[in-house]
């Protein structure tokens, strides 16, 4: 038998792939977790192997809901009907932020054709993230230390550039003012370190959810500014709703507590005769109207556990 036909060779190759791969038995217990799964999720093998999918380690969600569980769980559906599935979903990284991925789920059958488990492979869909550009911005002092995204000064510069392009060439763009709800209350309850950690989670989650052409920067202590080019008023509004939902699915383990925040989003699109100030004022007015609506609690606690942050 050729050495390449040795089953251990196949396992080693599967183990070292940078695409995430994991296997579940019929009870949905995790039996295998490869290098790619560790890289994409932040969870090591010892964190997950032997645990059950129903424990919601990765807290899968889609555009409509935060947890794909029960009858809607694609793993359960594949176990029942034996059909392969593919979907775009988001999982929660060990550090708390959301990561968009494309998943592929296939049934595993024994020699008699009976389904004995399922396998999932998944790849990141974070097209807006450019590590080289991130490194360059950091080297020239353009990044916010707390969140790792462009700071207020560089965000102002980017906004001026887009406004000038609109004024001269009529290239459409819109902005979103994104406010972390009740951040001062969160900081008073959990401290400055927890506040900084949750801001990083929010920033990373939002950056992963925007298009490659979009820009996200820190605006004020509790606000972010997103700039979306070639986007209609309806498109900016839809992006804002998506951001609001996905941040609500993010969270942070902090000394045994599960901490999360909500955000309010105001938006505006550039119009003829706009100044930067008038555009920002319209977005702030939209944000004020949104912030007046009731929101879910800013943080929740889960029982037991130790710090993972």
Write a structural description.
With 309 residues, the chain is α+β, with helices and mostly antiparallel strands. The chain has ten helices and eleven strands. The strands form three sheets. It has a five-stranded antiparallel β-sheet. A four-stranded antiparallel β-sheet has the order 7-8-6-11, sandwiched between helices. Helix 7 (183-190) crosses helix 8 and helix 8 (192-209) crosses helix 9 (233-249). The model is unreliable at 295-309 (pLDDT under 50).
Descriptors for this entry?
4-stranded antiparallel sheet; 10 helices; 309 residues; alpha+beta; disordered C terminus; elongated
Quick structural summary:
The protein has helices at residues 7-16, 35-41, 45-48, 74-81, 131-139, 152-169, 183-190, 192-209, 233-249, 276-291; strands spanning 20-25, 30-33, 85-92, 98-109, 115-124, 173-180, 215-220, 223-229, 252-254, 257-259, 263-269.
Mean of residue pLDDT values? 88
Estimated share of beta-strand residues: 15-25%
Any low-confidence stretches, pLDDT <50, length ≥5? 295-309
Number of strands: 11
């Amino acid at each position: 038998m050729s050495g390449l036909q040795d089953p251990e060779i196949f396992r080693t190759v599967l183990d070292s792939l940078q695409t995430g791969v994991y296997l579940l038995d019929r009870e949905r217990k995790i039996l295998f977790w490869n290098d790619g799964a560790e890289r994409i999720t932040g969870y090591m093998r010892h964190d997950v192997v032997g645990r059950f999918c129903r424990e919601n380690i990765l807290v899968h969600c889609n555009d409509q809901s935060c947890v794909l569980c029960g009858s809607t769980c694609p793993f359960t559906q594949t176990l029942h009907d034996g059909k392969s599935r593919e979907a775009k979903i988001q999982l929660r990284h060990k550090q708390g932020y959301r990561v968009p991925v494309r998943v592929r789920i296939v049934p595993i059958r024994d020699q008699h054709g009976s389904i004995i488990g399922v396998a999932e492979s998944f790849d990141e869909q974070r097209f807006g993230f450019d590590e080289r550009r991130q490194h360059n911005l950091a080297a020239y002092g353009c990044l916010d230390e707390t969140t790792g995204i462009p700071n207020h000064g560089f965000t102002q510069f980017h906004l001026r550039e887009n406004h000038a392009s609109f004024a001269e060439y009529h290239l459409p763009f819109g902005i979103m003012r994104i406010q972390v709800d009740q951040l001062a209350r969160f900081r008073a309850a959990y401290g400055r370190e927890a506040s900084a950690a949750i801001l990083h989670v929010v920033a990373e989650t939002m950056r992963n959810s925007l298009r490659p052409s979009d820009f996200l920067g820190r605006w004020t202590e509790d606000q972010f500014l997103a700039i979306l080019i070639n986007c209609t008023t309806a498109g900016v509004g839809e992006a804002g709703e998506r951001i609001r939902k996905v941040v609500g699915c993010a969270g942070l383990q902090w000394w045994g507590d599960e901490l999360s925040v909500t955000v309010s989003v105001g938006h505006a699109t550039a119009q003829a005769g706009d100044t930067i100030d008038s555009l920002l004022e319209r977005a702030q007015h939209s944000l004020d109207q949104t912030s007046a609506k009731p929101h879910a609690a800013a943080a929740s606690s889960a029982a037991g556990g130790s710090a993972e942050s």
